[in-house]
Each structure stands twice: as C-alpha cells, then as structure tokens.
Amino acid sequence: METLITILAGVLVTVATYLILSKSLIRVILGTAILSHAAHLLIMSMGSGLKNGSVPILDEGIGPPVDALPQALILTSIVISFAVTALSLVLAYRTYQETGTDKLDELRGIKHE
Amino acid sequence: MNNILVMPMVIPVMVGILLIFLRPYIKAQRWISFSTMIVNAGIAVYLLNRIQTEGVLRLDFGGWEPPFGILFVADSFSIILVLTTSIVTAICLLYAFSSVGKEHENMFFYSFINFLIAGINGSFLTGDLFNLYVCFEIMLLASYVLVALGGKKRQLSESIKYVVINIVSSWIFLIAIAYLYGTVGTLNLAHLSERIAESGQTPLLTVISIVFLTVFALKSGLLLYFWLPGSYSVPSTAVAALFGALLTKVGIYAMIRVFTLLFYHEQSITHTLIGILAGLTLIGGSIGAVAYKDIRQIIAYNVVIAVGFILVGLAVATPIAMEGSIYYLIHDMIVKALLFLLAGTMITVTGEYRIDYMSGLIRNYPLFGWIFFIVMLSLAGVPPLSGFIGKVLVGHGAIEAGSYILLALAFISSIFVLYSLLRVFLNSFWGETIISKEDKVPMKNGWLIPCVLLTIGTIVLGLGAEPLAVYVEDAANTLMNPQIYIDAVLKD
C-alpha cells in the first residue's frame, strides 16, 4: 500500500512539474494545486504506515490505534492550499484583465508603465 | 499562566478581523493598527524582562503537555525580534498614513498589515515545526495581497512570480516536514532536538536538514534571491519597507533556529554549506548593488548583502559571531526599513527611478539628504552607528573560527554597500538641482517624521548597545546551548 501511494505521489509531482513549466498562467496554478496534493499523499505515507492499527478510539478489544497526527497535518495543509489556490486564481484573473494575456512569456517585458 | 505569550500573534489577528468591519472609517483603522503595534512592543518589553529572571517561557495550548500539543516558546532571541518587528511596523504605518492613499487604505490595507504581523510574530514564537509552516503561510498570504494591492500591470506580473516561487518553496517545506516526521516521529522543536541528539544526526537526517536549508534559503534570499529584486520593487513604499525589513528576516530566523537547535551535530557539512552559500550571496549581492541605476534594484540588492552577512555569523557558529548576527539582524531591520522609505520618497518627489535622472536633492530637502548620509554610514558599519557592533562581533567570531575567506568577503561586501549608496548619494543628492521652485513637491511631515524616528533608532541602537548587550548575550547563549531550550520545554 505504501508503495502504491508513493508511486501515486511521484506521478502527481511529475504532472505538476509539467504544468508549472508550461506557459499558460492557469496551467501553472493548476500545477501548484496538484503539487500540494502530492505532498499530502507523501505525509500520509510518512506516518507509522498505512493500514497499520485500528481506529483511534479507546475501547476494549481494539488494538493499538493508528497515528492520527498525519491526518491532522494534511487537513491543515489542505485548507492552506485551498486558500492559496483561490487567491492565485483571482490574481491570475486580474492579471489577465489588466494585461490581456495569460501567457507568461508575454508578461515578461512589462517594466514601467 | 503565561497567556500573554500568545498576545503578539492574537492581537493583530483580532484587530485585522475587526478592521474589516471598520472599512469606511480610515482614521480609526490607522490609529487602531498603530496602537496595536505599540501594545505589541510593550508586551515584548515586558516578556523580555521576565525571560531574564525566569528563563525561557512557554505556553501549552489547551493544556496539552509537550511534546503532544502545539506550544509557543519565548526565548530572548524570538522576543527581541518581536520587539523590533513591532517598532519597525509602527513607524512604517506612520509613513503609510500619508503615502498609501485613500483608495488603497480602503481596500483592507491595514487588515492585511495586521495579518502579516500576526504571521511574522507567530513564526518567531512557535515551538512546533508544523506550526512554523502555518505561520509562514499566514504571513505569505498577507504578503501576496500586499504585493498586488494597487493592481498596476507591473505589480501583477511580479506578484505572479512571487506567489509561484513561494508556493513551490512552501511545498518543499511541507515535504521536509513529512520526511522529518517519518524519520524522527515528532514535530515539537525541543523534542526533535532531543531525539536527533540521541540518534547522533544520521546521514539521513543531514540530507533532510539540507532540504530545510533549501526552503529557508528560498524564503530568506540566501543565494536563491533571484525573485527578490523584482518583487520588492513593485509594492507601495510603506509595504516595500516592511518587506525589506521583515520578510527575509523571518527566513533567517527559521534558519538560525533550525540549525542551532536541531541540526548542529554535523557542522562540517551543514554549516560549511551555509558558509559557502553566504559567501556566494555576498558576492552576488555586491555585484547586483553596483550594477544597476534603478534605485529600487540597488536597495533590493542591499537586502541580499545583509542576508549573506547575517548568515556568515551562523556559518562560523561561535558564541561571539552569534551575538554579532543578532545585533546585525536588529540593526538591519531598522535600517532597511529606513532605506526603503528614503528611496520611495526620492521616487515620489522626483518621479524618476534612475539615479542618473535625479540630481541636487539635498538643496531642496536638506534634512532628508543628511538622513540618507547617516543611513549610508550606518549600513557601512561606521561607529557609533548601529551597524558597527554587529560587524565587529561577526568579524571577531570569523577570526576565532579561522574562516578568513568569509571574513574577507563580509568586509569587502561592506565596501560595496558603501560604494553603491555613495553612488546614489553623489548622483542624486549632490550637483545642480533639477527641481525648480515651482515644481518642488513639498516634503510632507508624514514622510519625514518616520524617517527621523528610524534614524534616531539606528543612532540609539549604536550608542545604547551596552544596555542591550544583556539581552543579546542571553539570546546567543540560549542558541548556542540547545539544552536550555529543551529543559524549558520538556521539563516542568
């Protein structure tokens, strides 16, 4: 299971890298969103292992619970990446409105207006 | 209880939210933000004195004992930085009152300044690595907005770059945290330090430490400063001054904390690497500072040089060099804010960016010209101004540790700083004035007073180094002896 998740994280990083290196602004932002999901998967596989232990409730007859901290970290991180993605989408839209282009190489030449 | 410890972060958050509802009342927004910073400064002074008698303070949130919960830890180093941040922000706010303009002040400007400060203070105070990441993000989100506020074409195109760079570096931060958690199984800084010391910093941990180094190098502009001159030259003057004074310093703080508290066992690898990076930063920054004629570029590269200089102190890692770094950090926060304010005012009064298009400003604005002269001397490290003590102590430490190349680079870079600013001074302040009496933009008191206050700051910090020495020594002592920090957090 860990191997599968790690490979999936790797695939996501590949996709994200491809998107971030493209010229279209919207693709770059989608790339950063996917990149953060890759990190979440990595955090998940970094705990004491997946499918290792039972639900984290104290009760008779239930074995040692899973490490719940990675989930908490991922939850926080998802919220943050949600905020950042929302903000960068707005920023990209404003840039498109103002400059009339969403191509990164056309945004380069702007010096003093 | 030490509940007051959380105030430097909670008060700005609360005030930031409150100001959203006070949108139409700009005057109220101004003075509430200003008094928030003053209150923060007061709290910092109180805490600093308490730390001297009671040792390192901590606050466990929700009563969860470390290492299980999140906590705030205040040692002299972090509180000194909180104090300097509050003072510098208060003065930059004074400048913002008469420079930002109503149409931007209306757009939640002061709310975002408060959120920015909340993130910065949180980063200084937190005792948990993941919490550090969260506070970094609060700070960065506010800074994304502040860079783009104004919505000019150039601001937007630069802010896109700034946002993407920071998202990628935050991603690396998250990855590094995941690896560290997978290896050591904790995220509490003191607990991490203890466990890493037990395992003796294995090669795996050293690799993880270099991932952390990459992150903080991106955030603080250590060698990876390619994004810095662009994004620091676009926002309005008051915001640029805050960025120049505070944002890179948070990266430096995190780097110093991580490499003195956690990864200090393999100094031949990590600290040598920091030394090489600091040396290259000094060289690159010096070249940049003399290469451009755009004043915003010149001062942005001056920020880069300072980053290199402060981290020379971390690289040699002797107690004296550490003290020097702390002094220089305080000095740099004050003086860089002043430098950005001066440059922004020069641009406003002349309407030009290039130094060869400005001339004879000292004839029109004598006091302003003299302030620039004092800043120049202070940055070059001329006694009795504040840059001197930091430079001497870092130099002393470098000689003790025998790193003569770093010593030479650090002091040659000071000459470059002096040269780059002297060029600005000779070009823009001397010579025939190009501003006729009719076109002269009157120098507003709101521009001049913050500059004078910061100038007084640099002089006082230079002359009053003696009373400050107690606190700085304590800060350096805690940094050099991680056990003090660990005992304060993990033992009751």
Give a quick rundown of the structure.
The complex is a heterodimer of chains A (113) and B (492). Chain A is an all-alpha fold and 113 residues long.
Task: Give keywords.
heterodimer; A: 113 residues; mainly alpha; Helix Hairpins; 0% strand; B: 492 residues; 2 strands; globular
Description of the structure:
The complex is a heterodimer of chains A (113) and B (492). Chain A has 113 residues and is mostly helical. Chain A has a single domain (2-50, 65-104), classed as Helix Hairpins. Helices cover 64% and strands 0% of the residues of chain A. Chain A has helices spanning 2-20, 25-46, 69-99. In chain A, helix 1 packs antiparallel against helix 2 and helix 2 (25-46) packs antiparallel against helix 3. The longest helix of chain A has 31 residues, at 69-99. The model of chain A has no long low-confidence stretch (mean pLDDT 87). With 492 residues, chain B is mainly alpha-helical. Chain B has one domain. Chain B contains 21 helices and 2 strands. Chain B has a two-stranded antiparallel sheet with strand order 1-2. In chain B, helix 11 runs parallel beside helix 13 (295-316) and helix 13 packs across helix 17. In chain B, 60% of the residues are buried. The model of chain B has no long low-confidence stretch (mean pLDDT 92). The A-B interface holds A 20, 25, 28, 32, 35-36, 39, 42-43, 46-48, 69-70, 73, 76-77, 80, 83-84, 87-88, 91-92, 94-95, 98-99, 104, 107-108, 110-113 and B 130, 134, 137, 141, 144-145, 148, 151-154, 156-157, 159-160, 163-164, 167-168, 170-171, 174-175, 177-179, 181-182, 185, 187, 353.
